[in-house]
Amino acid sequence: MTSSNQTPQDAPTSVVFVHGMRSSGAIWENQVRHVRAAGHAAVAVDLPAHGARRHDRFTMDGAFEALDDAVATLPSGPIALVGLSLGGYTSLAWAARQGATDRLVGILAAGCTSDPKGKPVRLYRDVARGVANAAYLGRRLTGQVVHPSVHRPRLSVPSVRLPFRPLRSAPGGSDLRQVEIAPQQTAEMYRPTWDVVTDALTHLAGRSSIANVRAARIPLWFVNGARDAMRIEEQRHLAAAHDGSLVVIPGAGHDVNMEAPAAFNRVLTRALADFNRRA
Question: What UniProt keywords are attached to this protein's entry (predicted)?
Fold first, then answer.
């Protein structure tokens, strides 16, 4: 919502958070609180096969729909995406598909600077398939599972609001509504099996994140933990960006937003300020 003196373009950038593989939107609780306290509307999505959507099979089209739905829930005005790992690859692919719209003003992509079109992802997918098959066999022998291709009926999972925390008013005195996200325990209670890894990597293996970076004509901030193995092509991604920045957070690994939340939040604040200024 904007005040009568404030146009949608003047409103603070709204933020869509996109989680990584085998987790859920709950991993962003710290960051959602942080950006809301600064006056931004924010929502953390659950991708197919994760969290509240754990009974859906993962597809990239389904992931795009999740982002489309999230954007539709937010106030008019500029939008930024913040994605980790699978969420970062998904965000870059969504931006390349959509093009640099008036609403999308920037992406912070964390833990996703290894091009999934290369051999490492295909090898990891094959390993994951072996783990999933072994786990499935073990569950079947103990009578705990149906065949992965047979999906159970989708359950109705009520959304849960975070405890209310007053938000600082946006410039002009407008109030930003609170948007629901998944409860914190979702990531542990409904942690997806390894079956989702093979699905996700199959959809990623034919896509080039480098090509998506080139196609995204918006500011891109790449944020990696210094100990993250996915850093191996960060310089290639930076060079491919039309307008790119790279931040490496010392001491952190792949799950950089949870391993170094204070440092990550400082970088996030800088990135959103950069996106706002350029928008």
Answer: Hydrolase
